[in-house]
Every structure is written in structure tokens, then in C-alpha cells.
Design a protein that fits this description.
The structure is a single chain. By secondary structure, this protein is mostly helical. The protein folds into 2 domains: 47 residues, no CATH class; 64 residues. It is 83% helix and 0% strand. It contains 7 helices and no strands. Helix 3 crosses helix 4. The longest helix has 36 residues. The N and C termini lie far apart (102 Å).
Length: 136
């Protein structure tokens, strides 16, 4: 009898062959443990099915969609996103547009200054190193 009880999940989910299912139905009629287990599985499955939406709610949503009503998304969020996009494009154009050459010139001047400073530092280092070598 224990072997038959192990088939309860296969029977419940319809995984048994028709002959095995018929034999298990006869077993359930005689086994109180399997009857309780089947009742529990059926109640659990019913509890997991979400309740249907009220018909009036469904009809209201469909009527609103058919009428073309604008929700808060269309009235507030979409224009705000469009404004942010335009502002972002303007800022991007400002930093990469016609004024870009001015920033490149400043960069070229900065590199020339750094190069001159580096040359002076290198020459000072060489002189100090040569003086050090002469001592030893």
C-alpha cells in the first residue's frame, strides 16, 4: 500500500498512464491518508489561483482606454521627461559644439607649460646628479 501512496503527486498533476490513474483512484477510495492528502493538494491549488478582477473595474478600464483619456503619466511625466531631454541635449551641445576649440587651445597652452616645467625639472635633476657623482 505504501508504493501506491507515493504516486499521489503524479496522479494529482496528471502524470500517470490511464491504467495507473484508474488503479490509483481505487486506492484513494480505500486509503484515508491519500484522501486527506488529495483534499489538501486541491485546497492548496485553489488558494494559489488569484481572484478575478471585479467586472466593473475591468469595464471601467476598457472604457477609459477606448475613450482615450490621458492619465497622469501623459499629463505630467512625459512633458517633464521631454524637457529634461532637451536640456540635456543643450548642455551636451554647449560642451561639444562650436566652443570646443577654445577648450582645446587652453589644453595646448597647458601642455606647453607642463613641458617647459618638466624640461627645467629634468635639467635640475641632471645637474644635481652630476654634482652627486663628483662627490663620490
Amino acid at each position: 500500500m505504501k508504493n501506491e501512496c507515493e504516486n499521489i503527486l503524479l496522479y494529482f498533476y496528471g502524470e500517470l498512464e490511464p491504467q495507473q490513474a484508474a488503479a490509483f483512484q481505487e486506492h484513494v477510495a480505500q486509503c484515508p491518508h491519500c484522501r486527506r492528502e488529495m483534499a489538501f493538494l486541491q485546497q492548496t491549488q485553489q488558494a494559489l489561483v488569484p481572484p478575478a478582477a471585479p467586472q466593473t473595474l475591468v469595464e471601467g478600464v476598457l472604457a477609459g482606454a477606448a475613450a482615450g483619456k490621458q492619465g497622469w503619466w501623459s499629463r505630467i511625466v512625459k512633458p517633464a521627461l521631454a524637457a529634461a531631454l532637451v536640456l540635456g541635449a543643450g548642455v551636451l551641445f554647449f560642451f561639444t559644439g562650436p566652443y570646443r576649440s577654445r577648450y582645446q587651445d587652453d589644453g595646448a597652452e597647458l601642455m606647453a607649460y607642463i613641458s617647459a616645467e618638466a624640461d627645467e625639472e629634468y635639467n635640475n635633476f641632471v645637474a644635481d646628479f652630476e654634482a652627486f657623482e663628483e662627490k663620490f
